[in-house]
Each structure stands twice: as C-alpha cells, then as structure tokens.
Amino acid sequence: MRDRTGRPALTKPASTLGPIHEQLERARRHHAPVDRGMMAEVVRAVLTTMSGDLSATETSLLHEVEALGRAISAAKQEIASLRVADIKQRDIPFATDELDAIVRHTADATHAILESCEMLDAVAATVAADAGAKLQDAVTKIYEACSFQDITGQRITKVVATLKVIEAKVARMVTTFGAHGGTIDIPAADHVPIADELLNGPQLPSNAMDQSDIDKLLASLG
Amino acid sequence: MPIDRSMNVLIVDDYKTMLRIIRNLLKQIEFNNVEEASDGTEALSKLRSGHYGLVISDWNMAPMTGLQLLQEVRADVRLRQIPFIMITAESKTENVVAAKQAGVSNYIVKPFNAETLKGKIEKVLGHA
C-alpha cells in the first residue's frame, strides 16, 4: 500500500499497536494529566513499533523529536524550580530600593556641592576681577559636572523599569508552564506603561547623538 | 539691540538638582529673574498667569511632558511666540524631529555645558 506521495504507507497490524493502546487506556483510567515519564514511554513504544517501517533518516528524525521532548521537559523542570515568589517579593524590591537609595544619596551629595558652589559664586563677586573670573570659571565647570545626577537618575529609572518587565515575564513564563499551582500574581500588562512613547531616556554614548549632531539635524529640518 | 536680561525665564524640570544648576548658570549670564516649575502642568499654569520671555524645559516629566508643554504653548495664542528651548537626555532623531515639528526654538542634549546654554539662549533671542 502506498500513500498519496507514492511512498510505502506506514501500516502496522493492529496487534503491534497493542502497547500504545494499553498505555493510552491506562492514562484514561487514571483521569490525570499524562506525566512526562508516561509520555516518554509512549514515544518509545511508538518508535519501537515503527522501527521496521522507517528509513534511517525518519528514525533519526523521530529520535531528534524525542530528544527535543526531553529538552523541553528538562527546561520545564528548571523553570518550575525558579523561586518566583522570592524574585517578586524579595529580589526585585531589594534591587529597586537599593537603586532608589543611590538616587537619593547622589541627589543629597549634589545639593551639598551646589550649595558650596553658590557660596563660591558669591565670593567671586567680591574679589579682584581676575581672581573672580577664575573662580567663577571653576564653579561653572562644577555646575556642568553636577548634571551627572540627572542623567544617572534617569538611567536608574530605566533599569528599575527593566527589572519590573523581567519580573512580569518570569511570572508569566512560570504560569505558562503550570508551575507553583497558580500562586503567582500576573500583572495585567507585560511592559511598564509610559505616558509618551518617545520617552527613551539617556542613550549609551555609542548610540547617542551629541550636540553637534543635533544642531545639524535641526538645521536640516529648517 | 542687546538682550533684555531682565526678562522672566521659566525653567521646567522634575529634578531639583537640574533646576538649581540651570538657575545658577543663568545667573552667571545675568538672567536673574528665573522661576521654576517641576512639570508641564505647573509650567503651563505659571505661563498663563505671568509674563515670560523664555522657557527652558526638560522633556521627560509627568504628568505633562516637555513635548506636551511645548504643544500647549504653541497652541495658545497668547503664549505661542515665547522662545522655547528643550534641554533633555532624549537624543534620538525621532525626539529632535518631534520637537521641531511641535515648534521648538532650540534643542540642547544633556549633559550640556554653560557655553552651549549661553549660545542657544542668544540664538533664540535673536543675537547669535
């Protein structure tokens, strides 16, 4: 007998399918989801009963499928072993609290620096013109350097948003694979909503346009 | 004609540090009448109740962003002529294009230096 492609059809006497039927019947009687072990057993039984009919390529392909099944099974176990509750309730809040503390401390330090600069600025106005100019020049450079606090603050905000996305994705992945008995709260959206899609924040130096690039772009826009 | 440095300048940023830095840099170039707002909504309210000759605004703020503030300013018959400089860490082409389309007078990318700020202010006030 040949199939529609002209190749010999894969037929087997009903008696050789017995082990498969028995496995399926056993699974039905238990009324429980088929576990990984039983699934592997069924696949092995199928491969065994078909071995006489398949070419070397087809057998190899089926073995690859079986190996793929095992790999998926192993991945599921690994994902199931992730302690999502810890990630959500301890790790992410810890990381975000630490980052918030960095922003607070750098802001406090920057304000202290700025206060001193303002004092120096006032002094610059009372000293000889030459010395005053030098003093003010130095103070200006400190003002410029202090803008780092704004940039680092924005970068840290981006990192916190990314952590929240990772948290949501891990929770979703674990739920998809049926782990932890549904004890995970899944956020409604898997990304942190932003008010304006154009808010990209500071770019890494390798990706960012500098002021001269922006001036050229503005000029080209008329 | 020299620049009128007695004009009111409104600076808008949600980072107090940045407001303080810009205020001090403006003071160094003799702009002493500087007022602050921490987001677009507060800025718009101040602009509608006062008289300002220049707005210097950040982009990334909530609830109203700098871009939305710019759009509101340009849509308001009484405010639309005010020069508006965006100072922001947003440095992608799409940001610059969007700001330009909304009518920005000039665009400064953070981190910036005092010379750039001074140069852009002089340019938008017509004394480049």
Summary tags:
heterodimer; A: 222 residues; mainly alpha; 2 domains; 7 helices; elongated; B: 128 residues; alpha/beta; Rossmann fold; 5-stranded parallel beta sheet; globular
Element pattern of chain A in H and E: HHHHHHH
| Shape field of chain A | elongated
Oligomeric state? heterodimer
SSE pattern of chain B, N- to C-terminal: EHEHEHEHEH
Instruction: Please indicate the percent range of residues of chain B in DSSP E strands (runs of 2 or more).
Output: 15-25%
Q: How far do the termini of chain B sit from each other?
A: 12 Å
Count of distinct strands of chain A = 0
The spatial strand order of the largest sheet of chain B comes to: 2-1-3-4-5
Uncertain segments of chain A of ≥5 residues (pLDDT<50)? 180-195
3D shape of chain B: globular
Most strands sheet of chain A: none
Helix content of chain A: 55-70%
CATH architecture grouping of chain B: 3-Layer(aba) Sandwich
Report, as a whole number of angstroms, the end-to-end distance of chain A. Answer: 76 Å
How many structurally independent domains of chain B? Answer: 1
> Which structural class is indicated by helix and strand composition of chain B?
alpha/beta
Mean pLDDT of chain B: 93
Low-confidence stretches of chain B: none
Please, could you describe this protein's structure?
- Chain A is an all-alpha fold and 222 residues long.
- Chain A has helices spanning 18-30, 36-50, 56-80, 84-124, 129-146, 148-176, 211-220.
- Residues 180-195 of chain A have low confidence and may be disordered.
- Chain B has 128 residues and is an alpha/beta fold.
- The radius of gyration of chain B is 13 Å and the shape is globular.
- Classes of the chains: A mainly alpha (222), B alpha/beta (128).
- The A-B interface holds A 107, 110-111, 114, 117-118, 121, 136, 140, 143-144, 146-151, 153-154, 195-196, 198-203, 208-211, 214, 217-218, 221 and B 13, 15-18, 20-21, 24-25, 27-28, 59-60, 62-63, 65, 67-68, 89-98, 100, 106-114, 116.
